[in-house]
């Protein structure tokens, strides 16, 4: 195939194993951060339901749930609502909590540089689930270029307000260098908007991961999402339109 650009290593999951790895990864990878959700359980459930439905209806095929602050019990409850709302098709990725993926009926996990080695995460996950890892510079990309991961994220590409203590921005140049260091699907993250997404893809990313330009920034407490679910769907569509 003209899209073929290399083969994943033996450690990859069924998600990319044996197929052209860069051809299968979705171009838009929204991340729903728990910071945009209300604490009240009833409100929270409705918010999750509507936000997830709206972006899935917009055409989103992969979605990460990122919750850095709550208990496993809360994360698991949220994750189950998300799966219910998304239906069986979308690929759902949980941030960090490898041990909850199976119970949540999620498809995979995203780990950071400090969470756990790819080999350890792969051992817990088994061969068939999706595993992604964060990197913050091209050297870190090179270090996991042949690891048992399905994709490599690099960021922040641009300044971001959605992550505490972000690493220094890598810019488009960082994406270009990262692209030279791996054949795996490369996901760019950090401050990406519809205005910059095409330049990021042209620099070599296969996908853009996005929090605030789709879901907004959380207002916290009991106030609920800053962005209406319909608006989140429109935002996702704005990205997807660019990639058609
Ligand atoms: N990880 P936004 S940047 C979750 O550099 C996350 O690894 C990053 O949110 C990294 O699209 C980031 O609002 C925040 O900038 C992305």
UniProtKB/TrEMBL annotation:
GO annotation, biological process: thiamine biosynthetic process; thiamine diphosphate biosynthetic process
Entry keyword Lipid metabolism: no
Catalytic reaction equation(s): 2-[(2R,5Z)-2-carboxy-4-methylthiazol-5(2H)-ylidene]ethyl phosphate + 4-amino-2-methyl-5-(diphosphooxymethyl)pyrimidine + 2 H(+) = thiamine phosphate + CO2 + diphosphate; 2-(2-carboxy-4-methylthiazol-5-yl)ethyl phosphate + 4-amino-2-methyl-5-(diphosphooxymethyl)pyrimidine + 2 H(+) = thiamine phosphate + CO2 + diphosphate; 4-methyl-5-(2-phosphooxyethyl)-thiazole + 4-amino-2-methyl-5-(diphosphooxymethyl)pyrimidine + H(+) = thiamine phosphate + diphosphate
Pathway as given in its UniProt record: Cofactor biosynthesis; thiamine diphosphate biosynthesis; thiamine phosphate from 4-amino-2-methyl-5-diphosphomethylpyrimidine and 4-methyl-5-(2-phosphoethyl)-thiazole: step 1/1
InterPro entries recorded: Aldolase_TIM, ThiamineP_synth_sf, ThiamineP_synth_TenI, TMP_synthase
Entry's Gene Ontology molecular function annotations: magnesium ion binding; thiamine-phosphate diphosphorylase activity
Limits of the Thiamine phosphate synthase/TenI domain: 43-214
Sequence positions that bind 4-amino-2-methyl-5-(diphosphooxymethyl)pyrimidine: 64-68, 95, 134, 163
Catalytic activity, EC: 2.5.1.3
Residues noted as binding Mg(2+) in the record, renumbered to the chain: 96, 115
Keywords: Magnesium, Metal-binding, Thiamine biosynthesis, Transferase
Cofactor note: Binds 1 Mg(2+) ion per subunit.
GO CC, one annotated term: cytoplasm
Residues noted as binding 2-[(2R,5Z)-2-carboxy-4-methylthiazol-5(2H)-ylidene]ethyl phosphate in the record, renumbered to the chain: 160-162, 191, 211-212
Cofactor(s) listed: Mg(2+)
Domain of life (superkingdom): Bacteria
Function: Condenses 4-methyl-5-(beta-hydroxyethyl)thiazole monophosphate (THZ-P) and 2-methyl-4-amino-5-hydroxymethyl pyrimidine pyrophosphate (HMP-PP) to form thiamine monophosphate (TMP).
Family per similarity comment: Belongs to the thiamine-phosphate synthase family.
NCBIfam families associated with the record: thiE
Name by which UniProt lists this protein: Thiamine-phosphate synthase
């Amino acid at each position: 195939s003209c899209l073929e650009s290399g083969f994943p290593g033996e450690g990859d999951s069924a998600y990319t194993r044996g197929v052209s790895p860069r051809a299968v990864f979705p171009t838009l990878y929204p991340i729903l951060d728990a910071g945009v959700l209300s604490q009240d359980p009833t409100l929270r459930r409705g918010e999750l339901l509507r936000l997830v439905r709206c972006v899935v209806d917009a055409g989103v095929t992969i979605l990460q749930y990122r919750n850095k602050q709550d208990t496993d019990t809360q994360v698991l409850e949220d994750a189950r609502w998300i799966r219910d709302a998304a239906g069986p098709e979308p690929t759902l990725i949980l941030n960090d909590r490898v041990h909850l993926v199976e119970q949540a009926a999620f498809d995979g996990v995203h780990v950071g540089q400090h969470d756990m080695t790819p080999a350890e995460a792969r051992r817990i996950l088994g061969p068939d689930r999706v595993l992604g890892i964060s990197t913050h510079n091209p050297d870190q990309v090179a270090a996991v270029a042949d690891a048992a991961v399905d994709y490599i994220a690099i960021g922040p590409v641009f300044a971001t307000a959605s992550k505490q203590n972000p690493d220094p921005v890598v810019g488009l140049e960082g994406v270009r260098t990262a692209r030279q260091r791996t054949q795996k699907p490369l996901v760019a993250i950090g401050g990406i908007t519809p205005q910059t997404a095409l330049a990021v893809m042209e620099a070599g990313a296969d996908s853009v991961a996005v929090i605030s330009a789709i879901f907004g920034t959380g207002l916290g407490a009991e106030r609920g999402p800053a962005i209406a679910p319909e608006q989140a769907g429109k935002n996702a569509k704005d990205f997807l339109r660019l990639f058609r």
